[in-house]
Amino acid sequence: MNLDAQIGSFRQAYEKLRAEIGKVIVGHESIVNGTLISLMAGGHVLLEGVPGLGKTLLVRTLAQALDLSFNRIQFTPDLMPADILGTNLVVENVNGRREFQFQHGPIFANLVLADEINRATPKTQSAMLEAMQEKSVTAGGQIRKLSEPFFVLATQNPIDQEGTYPLPEAQLDRFFFKLVVGYPSAAELTEVLTRTTEGVTVEVQRVMDHQSLIALQKLARQVPVASHVKNYAVRLVLATHPKTETAAPVANQYLRFGSSPRGGQTLILGAKVLALTKGRFNVSFEDIEEILLPAFRHRLILNFEAEAEGITTDHVLREIQKAVPRDVEMARA
Question: pTM for the full model?
Fold first, then answer.
């Protein structure tokens, strides 16, 4: 298959998957696109929003549209690591002897929904996030690989404080994107009420299997990035580091810590997928800028001044984007 045909096949699969999700999810186009870009890039997604906005429904619909194994984990304060990863049980074999047998936990699936992840204790959170990073589980002295592809969508409620355990910054860094789910518009809310209160049933078709998804992920990594575009991504990362020569003024004013190298990896990989969805086999400055907020918003740590003034990481990132020129040579001219 030639390159144009591969790009066309990628776009067709992406649009078909998005269309199936659109049968159920009203609006939230940026959230759906962000989730699918992460999926194609092989990363995990953290969805944040108040209850009832369709976060869980989005993940369930995605699981229906993909021919992948799916498990849902409802996080609670009493959830233990073994409830996620699995544990060794004593069973009786055919010879009447007792032996240990590993019982797989719900983490052993292609697509895992971690619902309200900030309700679990740090001990359980760390077990989950270790499996996300290593794509393997260590139990009973054995390392068990998770099946490929492996994709976690975690949700959290920002308004619940009692009985919650906020994810540490080092663990947040393991998520590819953080997507903030907002309220629907009047037209979108009207459509939601129409679909959910008038007995309308929608059947989501399976449009992709795991082999097709892996092939799309491999194609995305082959998209070339010009040196000046990659340099722009590097300078955006460095501009978030306060008290350094490369820091943007807003970073020095409002940040304690900037993005890790994972932020740069996310910028490049996400921009590669985005370019393919637009029918291009090269990454542009616009692709990098479109990925910036979801890639970095959970990787910046605000200082006391920012919190006192109600400054958000999104505001800081927009100011950093303004402060960092696209092309250094153009800026010098």
Answer: 0.88
